[in-house]
Design goal:
Blueprint: H1 2-6, H2 9-17, E1 39-46, H3 49-60, E2 63-66, E3 74-79, E4 82-89, E5 101-107, H4 111-120, E6 124-131, E7 137-142, E8 148-153, E9 171-178, H5 181-191, E10 195-202, E11 214-222, E12 225-232, E13 241-248, H6 251-263, E14 267-274, E15 280-285, E16 291-296
Parallel strand pairs: 1-4, 5-8, 9-12, 13-16
Antiparallel strand pairs: 1-5, 2-3, 3-4, 6-7, 7-8, 9-13, 10-11, 11-12, 14-15, 15-16
Length: 307
């Protein structure tokens, strides 16, 4: 968990936004519609691309396709043939320190309108909207609590919503850990034209003891689909941040994966623990040190749209 606390995420996102590539579209499976508020892409900045590819390839079978021939230190990451993320070589950014980190990207219908929403809510514009070719127009922000994220307006539309359960190793969920749940909920609901609902769940991390062990948790929805969660910080000493979650089929499978993490050059930051909303969760880091959560979600559990 200490790794989560000391990362300077602003450097990560500012660096990511300075890349000048003509990147491919996030998906060819689109009906031309934009789905504002949906997380449609993820980029990993890594100081160890070779080790990172071996790590996630060994854990989940991810495939890494290099765009080096196109003049980019960038890899498209696919799961069972479907692009799900990208990886940027940290040395191409010329950062002054280790900035390895996952960057989650939210769809917005209008990049300029999104900039205005974030600015008026007290957020910081780290990079104004800029075109990155076929991928679309990206912008980078920090909200008023310090959590960093990117927005993307795609030229050809966003990936369709799936009616089936995602494969193991796919991005299952996105969760904001924040020092001000109410303010953050208002911002992201407006940013993505989302509806916000409250959940009352017990805390297993020992947080919020003054409120009887309850976590202040909100769910953001659009088109009746749950898009993301917002919760109070598990540790008050942590910075506010967006945490992506990968799907794991079962507790037994999660235990197997966690045993493999150090063998493949990674680290288990938070061991598996039951999650009040269902399933078990753990936080790991690959060889570059970028944290990501693993969440069990079995075949007999409801789709996120049913939550």
């Amino acid at each position: 968990m200490q790794r989560l606390i000391i990362l300077t995420l602003g450097l990560v996102l500012a660096a990511c936004s300075s890349i000048d590539y003509n990147l491919p579209a996030v998906s060819s499976d689109t009906d031309g519609s934009r789905r504002a508020g949906k997380f449609i892409w993820h980029d990993l900045i890594s100081d160890n691309p070779k080790g990172t590819a071996a790590f996630y390839g060994g854990l989940f079978g991810w495939e890494f396709r290099s765009l080096e021939l196109l003049g980019a230190d960038y890899w498209v990451i696919s799961l069972q043939g479907t692009p799900i993320a990208g990886m940027v070589k940290q040395s191409s950014i010329k950062a002054q320190r280790d900035i390895s980190q996952w960057v989650s990207v939210i769809s917005v219908a209008d990049a300029g309108a999104a900039l205005k929403v974030v600015s008026e809510a007290g957020g910081t514009v780290l990079r104004e909207p800029v075109s990155i070719g076929d991928r679309g127009t990206i912008a980078v922000f920090a909200d008023a609590q310090g959590a960093h994220f990117a927005t993307l307006t795609t030229p050809a539309g966003d990936p369709r919503d799936s009616d089936s359960l995602l494969e193991e190793g796919a991005f299952l969920w996105h969760e904001l850990w924040t020092s001000d749940v109410a303010a953050a909920t208002k911002l992201y609901a407006q940013l993505g034209e989302l509806d916000a609902g409250m959940l009352s769940i017990d805390s297993l991390e020992g947080a919020d003891e003054e409120e009887g062990g309850k976590v202040d948790y909100r769910v953001l929805r659009s088109d009746k689909l749950a898009r993301a969660g917002i919760r109070s910080l598990p540790d008050p000493q942590m910075p506010s941040l967006w945490m992506p979650y990968l799907r794991v089929e079962s507790v037994e499978r999660l235990e197997q994966l966690l045993r493999r993490v150090p063998e493949l050059g990674g680290e288990v930051l938070v061991p598996a623990m039951p999650r009040p909303a269902g399933g078990y969760v753990s936080v790991i880091a690959g060889p570059s040190g970028a944290p990501i959560a693993l969440q069990t979600w079995g075949n007999d559990q409801p789709l996120l749209k049913d939550l």
